[in-house]
Fold these 2 entries.
Entry 1:
Amino acid sequence: MFEIFGIPSQALFGQLLLGLINGSFYALLSLGLAVIFGMLNIINFSHGAQYMMGAFVAFFLLHYFGLNYWVALVIAPIVVGAFGVLIERLFLQWLYKLDHLYGLLLTFGIALIVEGLFRNQFGSSGQPYQMPEQLTGGQNLGFMFLPNYRAWVIVLSLTVCLGTWFIIERTRLGAYLRAATENPTLVRAFGVNVSRMITLTYGFGVGLAALAGVMAAPIYNVSPQMGAELIIVVFAVVVIGGMGSIMGAIVTGFGLGVIEGLTKVFFPEASNTVIFVIMAIVLLVRPAGLFGRRA
Amino acid sequence: MADIALPSVEAKSSRSEVIAFVLMVGFFIVAPAFIYPVFLMKALCFALFACAFNLLIGYGGLLSFGHALYFGWASYLTAHSAKVWGFPPELAILTGAATAALFGLVAGSLAIRRQGIYFAMITLALAQMMFFFALQAKFTGGEDGIQAVPRGYLFGLVNLNDQTNMYITTLVIFLAGFLLIYRIINSPFGEVLKAIRENEARAISLGYKTERYKLMAFVLSATLAGVAGGTKAIVLQIASLTDVNWPMSGEVVLMALVGGLGTVFGPVVGAFVIIAMQNYLAQVGQWVTVIQGVVFVVCVLLFRRGIIGELANLLRIRL
């Protein structure tokens, strides 16, 4: 045990770890938002609700089918992603020619419906979700105690984020995606099925949100409101980072999580608001966002 | 912003608007005879709130997703100044409106630094920040809110505890706000605002300092939302976290959308529809959220002009 700035190292590194955990979720969610916005030009307001659905699918799988966390990690994103594909085919595809704001309003409506339905069914209080037994316990690192599950969340989130970055920036599929973002008509002329690509992109973005939901389930409780307020913070993260860059979304997500964690140590009253304050400062200093390009 | 579904008819005369206005005022004069007055007053406050919001989206093309900030904080300051400082109601509402104006100035000057979808996200995030302040501040009473706000005597003369007096006062405030908004959107300032909505780059190239116009519109909208919130605190004698939380921001968007974005009378109709729906559906509790979500989806997909917008389009008049 030792102290840094008068704070015991346990508390400091503990909060730093919590910050990294929150940052993992910010990064995954803002990445999904950025991917969806890039292709669909829609801000997915139901992202928080879809994150919550991911957690609930994991919960259902465990309680009704006896399928554990590892299965949920694969199945929940697919199920919720399929739900996303359905939403895109039923509703969103009619909005691409309209103003951005209609996409926001429609997905806001979907979030209200989904969250309202879950609240009717399961009440407002959270349901606990068991941590997978392989990841219980933790490591004593000397200066702090590191629970295994939290380490896993950070590693998995980083892997998924970097994997997504790699697919989009470094593969042929990603090249098609980026080309379709720039000029869908031209890409269509080359014989690429752009509308299917758009649908799958939405499904993928939604699947990322669901994956984050499954990862969050053992840490926070599974509750209908778990995504509602988180999504507003993620919006602030997206404003700070700018949605132009995939790597920007990842770096901003993790960075802000850490800053929020540190704020909890040094100035706990402000921990709820620090990200919004940073957003205000960034808007004053760099209106286009840290990684954004001036439109 | 050109493809927001606005009424397509540009009628030259505004006779239809005058007739609609007379009908509306007539309705509000006879309505207390057969509708519960507290419901009417609540709906009038929300109607003004929706009109203020509509000034920004319908005429400036700016979607604020954080208008609960101005409504809610004005409501708090009005309630606090009336209850703790002993302000008379007119001064209490002014205090609330001034608070909203100040917040509008700060939030507006930040939000207008980004366009389009970012604007909506910034206003939402700033409103959420101020929600947390309201949650933590002592004077707001946290989860309890500020209850039992005295209605007091208007100008020291008119006893607002009398339901009729309160109703007339609310109606006058609403009509004053409504006419002011009507005046704004038909002024040269309003025309520039519409030009910015249609094509900001063009407006800039014509030499307009569009940021100033947008900020001015934002502050006006926030202030009027504050008047609505303050009046609501006096009428219902309570200011609470509900008024300042994000679902309230969503509700006012829904009101304007249902009634018709960019129409003069749409937000009024939308506010009455939504408040009536909440009242009527109070028994089914949580389903209200689900139904509101469905209304959002239906409006965006099939009914983008809203009730009044469709009506105006059908009759080929301006409303």
Entry 2:
Amino acid sequence: MTIATAFLALLEGQPQHGYDLKRAYDQHFAGDRPLHYGQVYTTLAKLLRHGLVTVDGVGGDSGPDRKRYTITDAGVTDVQRWLDEPEKPDQYLQSDLYAKVIGALLTGRSAAAVLDVQREEHLVAMRELTRRKQAGDLADRIICDHALFHLDADLRWLEHTATLLDDLAVQVRR
Amino acid sequence: MAELALGVRLAFPSGRRGWLRTAMATAGVAIGAAALLLGASVPVMLDARQARMEARADSVAGVEVPPGETLIVAGVESQWGSNAVRGRLIWPESPGAPLPPGVPAFPGDQQMYASPALRAALAGPDGETLRRQMPYEVIGTIAPSGLSGPHEYAYYAGYKRAESLVGSGSWRVDRFGYVLEGERGPGTYVVVAAMLATLLLPVAIFIGAALRFGADTRDRRLAAIRLVGADSRAVLRIALGESLVPAGLGLAAGTLLYLVVRGRAADLRLFDVSVFPADIRPVPVLALLVVAVIVALSAGMTLLGFRGVAVEPLGVFRRSTVWNGRLWWRLLPLAASLWLLQPVLAGAANPDEDRAGLGVVLLVIALIPLVPYLVPLVARVLPGGSASWQLASQQLRQNPAASTRAVTGIVVAVTGAIALHTFFGAASVRRATPDNPADPAYVLQAPGRQTPAAMRERTATFEQVDGIRAGTVAKYILYGGRDATGTGYLVVGDCATLRQIATFDRCADGDAFVQGDTGRTVTTLDTGHIEPTPGTKVAVPAGARPARFVGTDAQGVNVGLLLTPSIVPASLARAEPWFVETRMYEGDDAPGTAAGQLRGLAAEIDPLAQFTAIAPEYDKFASLRVALNLGSAVILLMMGVGLLLDVASRLHDRRRLLGVLAAVGARRSTVIWSVLLQALVPVLAGLALAIGVGVGLGAVLMRMSQVPVLFSASAVLAPVAVGSALVLATTVGVLLPAARRVTTTEELRYE
Amino acid sequence: MTAGVRAEGGSMSTLLDAQGLHKAYGPTTALAGADLRVRAGEIVSVMGPSGSGKSTLLHCAAGLTRPDAGHVGYDGQELSMLDDVRRSALRRREFGFVFQFGQLVPELTALQNVALPLRLDGVSRRTAERRATGLMDRLGLADKARSRPGELSGGQQQRVAVARALVTGPRVIFADEPTGALDSVAGEQVMEMLTTAAREAGAAVVLVTHDARVAAYADRGIVVRDGRSSERMGVR
């Protein structure tokens, strides 16, 4: 998802000023990385150019941001196309974790130790996320859960791999 | 205490199943408690009855009471249907004569006080026939204090003629309350013992089984409580508290049941014994004992249930999962009972009744450990083959105790029912025919001299009754010396009548017959004296031909002289015979009321004449049989419900397995058959055992009561049929739908 | 982390200390030298694949199972030296339990279930039920007090079980797969409630689970594999 698509989705709900757009984006989509104002206006400029939004009025108030942006029909179509298109599942075939395990095995070091260290690291991360989740609202919970489920999947892979390490070592060294 | 209370709380379950369980256990305890309370009341009941009977006893036992403030009494013991009639003809010799208990005043001549039951019978259907036995004007009712029970038929009649009969039919008493000698029929005690064992044991088994229904669920629950911090003794206390609820409720319901039975007690009769409700009250110590026994039984059953089971916080552990079926200790009670019964089985003349009774009870008890052994044995022996039987037999072999828990009670009940039914059947066969086929059904022995014509008239009188053939003779007893009596008879009668008494070649009036060595003359025994006194001397006619007495008369009589009327010498015709005997034979077409009519006729001839029914007129065991049928019906019904609960709960426990079987493609019929076989095989094996032991027990009872050993198929098979019908109805009616439900794979979703 | 505790002040802050536990069920070895240390008020997760022995470790640590070898010290006492009465008293007063299922008494209402440990400890019915009601109110279970377990959902049953585990003010709560039979939302509610309430009450929690997302509610975790706990893994 690009910032442009996110803006279109936000604007489909209601026309907004650039400043409100940034705030809404930060709330729903930014995660840990809020937008710079620069990014807001370059993105809006791009959308204007493609005819996906229009500036429909300039407010009478003074201030840095008096333009209000409205989505066009083309913009709505764009949002629809975005939602219709399934995300390509990540293949996870290039994994640093996997590389480290193979590296340990190739060099005759303990792959189990690599896994143990990683497990502890994952668990620490998960505990941190759980604390955040307990402190936050529902939206926070959902995004934390997303991360937790992924870490959980990693952990399960770690456990699974740990039980297969001996066989794997034989194969790698052959 | 808190734990007991918690246990009590836990016994009030949620859900239909739990309620049913508590209700069944309560019902079992209630019936048991009522039976025990009644048992505890028997001593009081019998004591009260005995006390009243002693208070009115007038048997002077051969002692002559001199005249004075005395009452003249003559006894008329009679019978009406199944009821003995106690009649007393009385006449006071002075105003200060003793008044019989329960009678307000002396009745005038030909007036009587009658018991309420007798009055009711006189007013009832066929009362006119009864009335002929006691043709006195009823002027009042005998109070309960003068009666043995509410259903006793009794009367006191004023009878002035009794004055002239003192010494030959009546006697003097100066008081009431002579020593009463008790009597009890042989074998009766053993029959009652067998009956109690048959009826009470299943109740005990049922209580035990009922208290253990759902024991598995309870154990899981206790494990959960253990986790929360109850130690093993607290858990035991909780379980005890839980078992107290059916015990307590059952005691309350049992007391209620007891009071209901007590209220209806006036309607009940066993062995001619009826009791006043007021006399039924438990001996206080025994009543307390009943409560203690019930509580102890339920507690004991609970503790027994924990044998080999460890309830731990993490769950329930059974110490021996593999069932260890040793035979020898299971045979111990059987061996002990056979040892106790050995004299009876060997045909000893006078077996010890207490010992035999114990043996009978033990024989029934011996079944209890045998059933769980038998079932896996049968499961092993029966050829395998079908998948359903394989499933069923494995289950039966692995947990026979659970499979037979509910069956044992049925086996015990059916065994007892078979034994008692065969016994009652054999006893009633004896009743229908006299011991000796040559004997008459009834005999009237009246004092006084009768002409041959009068004797013929008396015969004709009795032959008025349909189906009755009669014959009247004059009987003299031969004087055999000062020390011997009853060794010989002199009988006077016409040819037709003599033929009923003895066998001989031919007969015409004027003939005489002899049996044994009479010598040239015989001497009769004079009737007027208590000491043997020689009476009339009679020459044995020269042409007398040999004859032989038949029937009971042949026993103990070694000499006899039979005379037809025209050869009777004048001296003998003037002498008074010992008695004039009318013998009555009952044909198959005789009506049921024949006995009553004959008694009425006899009473009209002479109320003091001795009327004897050689063959009992009624079934002495009829009331017992009714009690048995009623009792075994109730018990089998309870057992049926018990079996149902048991099977249903086992089905419930195994529904996952059955569901899996169905899911992997076992045909539904296979699964259902395996469930059915699991229920049916133990019952059938148990019933086979019941037939064997029941027949043996029946034989023991017959021997005890000197009844010829005889078995009728219906007496053996009826209880078996009822038992198996019950099981079939239970399994097919309820189990099948349940099994059907369980075998739908739907069930798996909830697992 | 554990090493740090030992260095800091030995067993003073360690409430429960299980060391070198061995346990075999017939030919199956469940524990082959496992350790578990729990400090007052902390939440420790015990993770491991199924059959790793983590439940046995919990059972031994709680005195429910006697280990074949090893020591379990609780508050200065050796658990394996205590008799059944003493251990039962400990379970009543000092420990609380939340298992996967089957721990509530179906015949009793939720309130009576929660009051049960107090009742077993001799507290009068009124007092016990008043305290149980208070706790259930705080835990948001007030409307379920009169229901029997059979009428509650799995999650509600587990929350009642948590309330029961907390009612005596225990110092350690042993939770064995408390969310094992629940869907993830209900499971999270139970975990949320368990950890929050335990922290408020200052109770330590031993949380046995195979689920990392459940284990993430703990302050720290150990892993059991093949009957050995993570503290010992390095020694191998």
